[in-house]
TrEMBL record:
GO cellular component: plasma membrane
Assigned protein family: Belongs to the monovalent cation:proton antiporter 2 (CPA2) transporter (TC 2.A.37) family.
Gene3D superfamilies for the chain: 1.20.1530.20, NAD(P)-binding Rossmann-like Domain
GO biological process, one term: proton transmembrane transport
Organism, as annotated: Leclercia adecarboxylata
Residues in RCK N-terminal domain copies: 348-467
Entry protein name: NEM-activable K(+)/H(+) antiporter
TM regions (residue ranges): 6-23, 35-57, 63-83, 95-119, 131-149, 215-233, 239-260, 303-321
Length: 478
C-alpha cells in the first residue's frame, strides 16, 4: 500500500510542473505576501488549534505537535484539481489557495526535521556538512535549470520528432523530482521550480500538452490509493470518534481559512470556496505520521485513527464543494472584475495567430500596435527562436493539436488568424476550431483560388487571397 501511494504521488508531481508553467518568476514574486503571510498563518493557526485539541484527546504534547502540523496540511492533488475544474485557478481565490498550498510544500522539510527532535533522537541528525551540500545542490539545480533547459529543448525541438520532445519532458519532470527526493526535499517542489524556470520559454504550451496525459493517469491512481488507505476495521470499531474527528478537522481548517481570507479582502462567497477547497487533510500526513510512528511518537491506535480521519476528510471535499457551490451559486457568478488576479490577462489572449512567417508577422505587429493581447503559435523552431530575439512572444508547437490550442487560450480568445503555408493545415485548423471552439471568429489566408473556394465551402467568410489582393492593389496604381 505504501509503495502504491508513493508511486501515485507522481500525479501531484506532474500537476505541480504544469502549475509552475503557468507562473513565471515575476508572477511568483507577486505572490510572496500571500505565500509567506496567509500561507504561514494558515499552517501555524491550524496546527496550534488542532494540536491543542489532540492534547485534550490524551495525546502527548510531542505527538500533538506533529499531529497538529500534519493535519494542518491540505491535499495538493485534490485542491489543485478542484480549483482547475471550477476555474478558480484564474481568479484571486485560486491565487490565494495556491499560495497556501505552496507554503505547505515548503513547510514539509522543517516538519520532517522536527520529528526526531521531538522524539529525543535528533542530535545526530544535524550534520551541517550534509545540510550545506544540500543547499549547494539545490542552488546548482536552479542555476543549471536557468541556463541549460532552454538550449537543451531548443536542440530537441530542432529534430522535429514529437516523441523525443515528450520523452525529454518526462525525463525533466522525473529527474527533477528524484533529484529533490534524493536531497530529502519535496518532489513536487522540485518539479514546480522546473516549471517556473520554463514558464517564459517558447516551449511552454507544448510542454503542457506533452505532460497532461500522464498527469491525469497518475492523479487517478493517487485518488484510488487514497481510497485503498481507508482502514475499514478502524472505522467500524471507532466510528463515532472518527466522524467527530473529521467534523472537527474540517470545521477548524475552514474557520482559520475563512478568517484569513476575510483579512486578505475576499468576499463571503470566495472565502467559503477557499475554506472548502482546502478543508481536508493531505497526503503529507501519511508521510509525517509514518515517520512519527517509527520514532514511537504515536501509539498504534492513535496513528490509525488519524490516518482514517485524514482519508475520510479528503473523500468529503468534493461533496462539500458541491454544497458550497449550490448555496452560493448566484453570488459566485456575480461580476467581480475588481477581484481578478493581476496576472490573469497574459493567459487570456484576445487573438491567436497561427503561423508567424512574413504574412503573420505583419498581422501580429498590427494587433500588438493596437494593444491587443496576442498569442502566436509557430511550429518552425528556427522562426520561433528568431522572433523571440526581437522580443515577440512566440510559442513553439503544432496548432493542429486541440490541446495545444486549448492550452494557448482558445477557449477565452475572441478570434483566430490562420496564416499557415500549407492549405491542408489551414483547412484542418478551420475544422478543429469549428468543432471545439465554435465561438472563435476565424480569419484566414488563402494562397490561391482553390483554397479560397474551400474556405467558403467550410463557412469561413473572412479571408484574403494574398496574391489576388496584392495584384489588385498594384494594378490600381497603374
Amino acid at each position: 500500500m505504501d509503495e502504491i501511494l508513493h508511486f501515485s504521488e507522481l500525479g501531484v508531481v506532474f500537476l505541480m510542473f504544469i502549475i509552475g508553467l503557468e507562473l513565471n518568476p515575476a508572477k511568483l514574486w507577486q505572490l510572496r505576501r500571500s505565500i509567506f503571510g496567509v500561507g504561514a498563518a494558515q499552517v501555524i493557526g491550524s496546527a496550534v488549534i488542532l494540536g491543542g485539541l489532540l492534547m485534550l484527546a490524551q495525546f502527548s504534547w510531542q505527538a500533538a505537535v506533529v499531529g497538529g502540523i500534519g493535519l494542518a496540511m491540505s491535499s495538493t492533488a485534490m485542491a489543485l484539481q478542484l480549483m482547475r475544474d471550477k476555474g478558480m485557478n484564474r481568479n484571486e481565490t485560486g491565487q490565494l489557495g495556491f499560495s497556501v498550498l505552496l507554503f505547505q510544500d515548503l513547510a514539509v522539510i522543517p516538519a520532517l526535521a522536527l520529528v526526531p527532535l521531538l522524539a529525543g533522537s535528533g542530535d545526530e541528525h544535524f550534520d551541517w556538512m550534509k545540510i550545506g551540500m544540500k543547499v549547494l545542490a539545490f542552488g546548482g539545480m536552479l542555476v543549471g535549470g536557468r541556463y541549460l533547459l532552454r538550449p537543451v529543448f531548443r536542440f530537441i525541438a530542432a529534430s522535429g520528432v514529437r516523441e523525443v520532445f515528450t520523452a525529454a519532458t518526462l525525463l525533466l519532470v522525473l529527474g527533477s523530482a528524484l533529484f529533490m527526493d534524493a536531497l530529502g526535499l519535496s518532489m513536487a517542489l522540485g518539479t514546480f521550480i522546473a516549471g517556473v524556470l520554463l514558464a517564459e520559454s517558447e516551449y511552454r504550451h507544448e510542454l503542457e500538452i506533452a505532460i497532461d496525459p500522464f498527469k491525469g493517469l497518475l492523479l487517478g491512481l493517487f485518488f484510488i490509493s487514497v481510497g485503498m488507505a481507508l482502514n475499514l476495521g478502524v472505522l467500524y470499531t471507532h466510528i463515532l470518534a472518527v466522524l467527530l474527528g473529521v467534523a472537527v478537522l474540517i470545521a477548524v481548517k475552514m474557520l482559520v481559512l475563512y478568517v484569513l481570507a476575510r483579512v486578505y479582502g475576499l468576499r463571503h462567497p470566495e472565502r467559503a470556496q477557499l475554506a472548502g477547497v482546502l478543508s481536508q487533510g493531505g497526503e503529507f500526513a501519511f508521510v509525517l505520521f509514518s515517520t512519527a510512528s517509527s520514532q514511537r511518537l504515536f501509539q498504534h491506535d492513535q496513528m490509525a485513527l488519524l490516518l482514517v480521519t485524514v482519508t475520510l476528510s479528503m473523500m468529503t471535499t468534493p461533496l462539500l464543494m458541491k454544497l458550497i457551490d449550490k448555496r452560493l451559486s448566484r453570488r459566485l457568478n456575480a461580476p467581480e472584475d475588481e477581484h481578478e488576479a493581476p496576472w490573469v490577462d497574459d493567459d487570456k489572449p484576445q487573438v491567436i495567430v497561427v503561423g508567424f512567417g512574413r504574412f503573420g508577422q505583419v498581422i501580429g505587429r498590427l494587433l500588438m500596435a493596437n494593444k491587443m493581447r496576442v498569442t502566436v503559435l509557430e511550429r518552425d523552431i528556427s522562426a520561433v527562436n528568431l522572433m523571440r530575439k526581437y522580443g515577440y512572444k512566440v510559442y513553439y508547437g503544432d496548432a493542429t493539436q486541440v490541446e495545444l490550442l486549448r492550452s494557448a487560450g482558445a477557449e477565452a480568445a475572441e478570434s483566430i488568424v490562420i496564416t499557415c503555408n500549407e492549405p491542408e493545415d489551414t483547412m484542418k485548423l478551420v475544422q478543429i476550431c469549428q468543432q471545439h471552439f465554435p465561438h472563435l471568429h476565424i480569419l484566414a489566408r488563402a494562397r490561391g483560388r482553390v483554397e479560397a473556394h474551400e474556405l467558403l465551402q467550410a463557412g469561413v467568410t473572412q479571408f484574403t487571397r494574398e496574391t489576388f489582393s496584392s495584384a489588385l492593389e498594384l494594378g490600381a496604381k497603374r
